[in-house]
């Protein structure tokens, strides 16, 4: 570590969750331990204020509404900065006022459809780039800025590239995005370009893009913005902090979220453990991880196992993914699998598989209450319904579903599903319209 | 008025801005006075708390973060409900937790491009259906619910139909949307269907849709959710209230917004006049109304006139619209023109025309700071730049631009603009990628 670093390895560090080795967060570029293990970010919390003092502070930061020149002062992530990145100087924070989202009670139709009366949604799509990725990306890009990074890269077909490009723009860091030509929609391809990212389409698969990105990191000094980078988990813990704060520091019975690469479960789990360790809450929620039947390596192995960590790991096998509208979670071998397993087991949680028809129906039911969610959110909602049916979730439990993105980002798949519902008339007579509307 | 009405015509009423006649808000369906004038909603404010008491209350409502079962308790619109709809009982409010959006200082690039150091953006796209329409629609649908309405209809190709469908769903009111077949994109067509709206495509123009809608209202008892309905203006005043609140009840020098049918300027102007009358602020902001060169009937007539209300009205003529990426404001004869003229003149404001190239450039510059806005927001930003160039806005003025929607809703037009920036490689070699990235 050089002397100008914003924090030392005694304050914030990386620890391999497999072999326990410690590394510098600011110096690291590969984000995979030589032993093959994933890293956790850890902090020395011995000098932060008490839970009582912090609760007061967190409330204070929500209060009033004053001209605050820095976007992080309106962020629902950095509101909890003593828990997220306690040693990061505020002038290193890269923020777009992200994560100040509503937590709403589900509407009539969704409550009835799932069978959960006390069902809530945290609408993480109401954030700058329209998906939960902003929660983690604000932390990743802040670490990149603190580390003096000049260029980041990611290989991504989905929300990650848009979020990385937006936060890199805010940080004035160059960003390049590698995508497989012909395998992304026009809008997916262009969203990062809006933020000035350099987009390169490769004539190969997503795996080819990933390999090129890793070689850029290893040989050309580029910083990776992908899921292996555990700084993203730190920011994304705010999901757990917001839910705890909202419910008066009493965790709900369950938090349900879709599982793609696994960052949602990993972040919620790590955040809840921290809240309990630091005395913010006495109990943690049980995590319900939900996967579509097309891409359910974790849910399938969980249900085949004896539901212990060891048994689950033994049953786990990557899978060949099928077709699903929940494309953003269409992953056969999740990067953060070990963290998902750790957190689901630690929270006494469960996994569910959402049938393809059910996850699309969940999006439609949610829409019929006025809320347009992405198909991945549909996976979580269908998982809740199934868990109720199987008696895992009880009808009177309080359940929070993580809505990971706005449906607007996946409008094309919704189009296919609903176009048949549009009525096309062959005349412009009001009486014809009135007849169809049964007026 | 029947006896079960939530408020009487002595508490909240409609007044024709032309002839002064008074009508019942709950009983009205046509929303155009027999004399041809537009209606304003007016309230008896004589019994509401003082400005000082309300400021305290508004702050209190932002503070803390507690499980609030009703979405309106997290709404950035209904936070100001004593000013918006003081006699509406809370159980009649139809809300999706809308309008709790950030106001952020513009990034480096946009500040430099416009020439305004003290430039801010209110990001009204970070709301449930992705556009500012939610601000007004929550008020309209609440009035519809209070009036016992069973079915609403709108003729719209744009954000209005999506917002109407979402809030109708939340209110459990039937919604039908009339669209001209072949003149809307697939996503525009399907978004209202997500919320269960009945979508009817007519083989005609947008004007045919409008005529059928008006006949449904006149002859079949359907309630109109269109721009003529002034309840929308009431909710949308929250833009002015939020800006005032944010800047400590000192209005910025200028508020700039795009002008389509004119509801933005009308709402901001009416809201500011109310704030001044009730003693919340001592001065109001000057309104800068901005139109694209393709659809600038108000800006063109303003600049040809002597800048008095009478002179402007004399110069005004509807125009044949041209092509523009700012499609949501591609309107040759704005419905609320008389209100725009009233508010721009009352605020000592101005109008600007944004060249097509400049409004697209504005979206790109804003994107390069990490914020993806719609082309209509681009119109406002390009208008600010031009007003600075012409000496109307001074470089040290505080300016707030209203960002009316997220760019995600207009990603298709952004795609056309940026596709040429994507690099397509003919191999998957890391060295080729590194060369392009100049690493």
3D architecture notes:
The structure is a homodimer of 439-residue chains. By secondary structure, chain A is an alpha/beta fold. Chain A has a domain at 103-126 and 236-418: Rossmann fold (3-Layer(aba) Sandwich). In chain A, 39% of the residues lie in helices and 15% in strands. In chain A, the strands form 3 sheets. A 6-stranded mixed β-sheet of chain A has the order 4-5-13-10-11-12. A 4-stranded parallel β-sheet of chain A has the order 8-7-6-9, sandwiched between helices. A 3-stranded antiparallel β-sheet of chain A has the order 2-1-3. In chain A, β6, α5 (159-171) and β7 (174-180) form a beta-alpha-beta unit. In chain A, α5 packs parallel to α6. The radius of gyration of chain A is 22 Å and the shape is globular. In chain A, 58% of the residues are buried. The model of chain A has no long low-confidence stretch (mean pLDDT 93).
Could you give a quick summary of the protein structure above?
The structure is a homodimer of 439-residue chains. The first copy, chain A, is an alpha/beta fold.
Keywords, separated by commas or semicolons:
Rossmann fold; six-stranded mixed beta sheet; homodimer; alpha/beta; 439 residues; four-stranded parallel beta sheet
């Amino acid at each position: 570590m050089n002397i100008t670093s914003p924090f030392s390895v005694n304050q914030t560090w990386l620890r391999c969750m497999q072999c326990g080795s410690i590394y510098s967060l600011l110096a690291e570029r590969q984000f995979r331990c030589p032993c093959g293990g994933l890293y956790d970010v850890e902090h020395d919390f011995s000098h932060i204020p008490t839970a009582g003092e912090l609760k007061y502070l967190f409330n204070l930061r929500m209060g009033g509404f004053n001209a605050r020149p820095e976007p992080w002062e309106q962020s629902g992530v950095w509101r909890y900065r003593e828990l997220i990145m306690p040693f990061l100087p505020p002038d290193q924070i890269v923020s777009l006022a992200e994560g100040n989202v509503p937590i709403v009670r589900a509407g009539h139709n969704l409550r009835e459809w799932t069978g959960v009366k006390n069902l809530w949604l945290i609408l993480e799509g109401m954030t700058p780039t329209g998906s939960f990725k902003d929660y983690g990306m604000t932390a990743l890009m802040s670490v990149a800025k603190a580390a003096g990074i000049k260029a980041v890269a990611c290989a991504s077909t989905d929300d990650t590239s848009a979020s990385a490009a937006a936060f890199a723009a805010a940080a004035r860091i160059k960003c390049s995005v590698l995508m497989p030509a012909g395998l992304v929609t026009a809008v997916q391809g262009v969203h990062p370009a809006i933020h000035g990212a350099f987009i390169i389409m490769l004539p190969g698969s997503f795996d080819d893009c990933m390999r090129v990105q890793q070689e850029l990191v290893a040989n050309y000094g580029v910083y990776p913005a992908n899921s292996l980078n555990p700084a993203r988990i730190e920011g994304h813990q705010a999901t757990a902090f917001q839910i705890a704060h909202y419910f008066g520091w009493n965790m709900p019975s369950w938090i349900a979220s879709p599982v793609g690469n696994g960052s949602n479960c990993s972040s919620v789990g790590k955040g809840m453990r921290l809240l309990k360790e630091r005395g913010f809450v006495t109990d943690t929620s049980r995590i319900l991880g939900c996967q579509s039947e097309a891409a359910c390596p974790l849910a399938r192995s969980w249900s085949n196992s004896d539901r212990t960590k060891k048994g689950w790991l033994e049953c786990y096998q990557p899978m060949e993914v099928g077709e699903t509208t929940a494309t953003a979670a269409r992953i056969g071998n999740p990067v953060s699998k070990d963290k998902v397993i750790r957190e689901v087991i630690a929270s006494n949680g469960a996994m569910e598989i959402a049938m393809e028809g059910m996850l699309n129906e969940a999006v439609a039911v949610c829409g019929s209450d006025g809320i347009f969610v992405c198909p991945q959110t549909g996976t979580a909602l269908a998982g809740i319904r199934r868990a109720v049916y199987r008696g895992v979730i009880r009808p009177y439990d309080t359940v929070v579903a993580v809505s990971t993105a706005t449906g607007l980002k996946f409008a094309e798949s919704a189009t296919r599903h609903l176009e048949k519902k549009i009525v096309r008339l062959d005349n412009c007579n009001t009486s014809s319209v009135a007849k169809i509307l049964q007026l």
